[in-house]
Amino acid sequence: MHTDTEACVRAVKSKDARFDGVFFTAVRTTRIYCRPSCPVVPPKVENMVFHPSAASCQRAGFRACKRCRPDTSPGSPEWNVRADVVARAMRLIRDGVVDREGVPGLAARLGYSTRQIERQLLAELGAGPLALARAQRAQAARVLIETTPMPMAEIAFAAGFSSIRTFNDTVRQVFALPPGELRSRATRSRGSAHAPRTPGVIVLRLPYRAPLNPSNLFGHLAATAVPGVEEWRDGAYRRTLSLPHGHGIVALGPRPDHIACRLFLTDPRDLTNAISRCRWLLDLDADPVAVDDQLRTDPLLAPLVDAAPGRRVPRTVDAAEFAVRAVLGQQVSTAAARTHAARLVAAHGVPVDDPEGGLTHLFPAPEALASLDPASLALPRSRRTTLVTLVGALADGSLRLGLDSDRDEARARLLALPGFGPWTTEVIAMRALGDPDAFLPGDLGMRRAAEGLGLPSTPAALTAAAARWRPWRAYAVQYLWATDDHPINHLPDTA
């Protein structure tokens, strides 16, 4: 969109927050870049130049606005919607792959050469993978500087910088303030020094595009929570996280204008990855206005959207974990699926300590499940075969599910496994791969909701009727599911 100057100018003049993260406004005279909704008086049009990313602004020598903090805006929804290589690269960069594996690792995951990846990102985003990762490191450093009492030297390495000098130089360049002054400003705005914190705990706010309806989002996560791995406690969804450098525990609670996030990390280097997983889990980078506007064009869906706008798709923090859970949940109730998963966790999960709640384990990785005895599973024989085949394919790499997955290829590989039909494949595409157009026409809840609205209920006819909801059929599923008075559609505290 940043190439459409007229549309960008209109968004800036109207301070339209829907475009925060979609493009950035850089001001030639002040050398500062802002989000479109910046509250200051818009600059003259001839002084505006538009960029597709914060990294592009920084690469061009612009500094982040201290008022609107454009580096903290929600991510562009484009990277979740699109399935091409640039979008997959952006999802991986946001997940910290460049910091952990370098540009060659990013390219290898995508099946391209480093030169091809660099050329495509530079052409579309005005910055290469290193610059994009640098911008993300700067934001991670800012979070740690402003929300924790960690020493600056520890923050530098936790945020992914190779040296304290690089950390200091980058923070000065991006925010026009040294790290110490960033912390002082944050302290003054709170009116007090950092409150005592549990070691390893980071408290932050996760922004999103309004509106956000938390009922089905948190209701689904809480109602399907696997004991020991997930729980609803004190108004927040809590779960364990298996991270590249250790493990973590996160508590996520809905607030009127943000998601309250409390992270315990055994290694602070996992901050960027943990935040990325939490945002993905809650679908926080969606564009609810675009989604709802499209769904409202169907007069049968419009009343559902108007009654509770801003529904998100509840996702997962680990695609392989969700695939295993999807198999365990085939043709059984929510309670039975939780029981099967809890047994698997108790037998094969890695134990963890949770001083603030009742979490006890990490969900077992495919490698830990690859050698399990099928006879130990309290499942029908056919489902044992399905589960064992799935974890074997995940463990040996013949099936890859994640942010870098080609969605169509992943679907084809899943359907080739024994016991995988359209329902299991599409629910994995929806919640693990993040396909906004995944659709479940054969789902019983969908068919009941369709009948109640006067929509056709047979899979073929419902699929045909749903063509007008594309490319947001996964969100239409959420609205249709929500017509049922099931616990997944209610916040636990209000159920």
Question: Would you kindly provide a written description of the structure presented here, covering whatever features stand out?
Answer:
With 495 residues, the protein is α+β, with helices and mostly antiparallel strands. The protein has 23 helices and eleven strands. The strands form three sheets. A five-stranded antiparallel β-sheet has the order 5-9-8-7-6. Strands 3-1-2-4 form a four-stranded mixed β-sheet. A hairpin with a 2-residue loop joins β7 and β8 (246-254). The mean pLDDT is 92.
Write the layout of secondary structure elements.
Blueprint: H1 5-13, E1 24-27, E2 32-34, E3 48-51, H2 54-59, E4 63-64, H3 78-81, H4 85-94, H5 97-110, H6 114-125, H7 129-147, H8 152-158, H9 164-175, H10 179-190, E5 201-206, H11 214-223, E6 230-233, E7 236-243, E8 246-254, E9 259-265, H12 271-281, H13 288-295, H14 302-307, H15 319-328, H16 334-348, E10 350-351, E11 361-362, H17 366-369, H18 381-396, H19 407-415, H20 422-431, H21 444-453, H22 459-465, H23 473-481
Parallel strand pairs: 2-4
Antiparallel strand pairs: 1-2, 1-3, 5-9, 6-7, 7-8, 8-9, 10-11
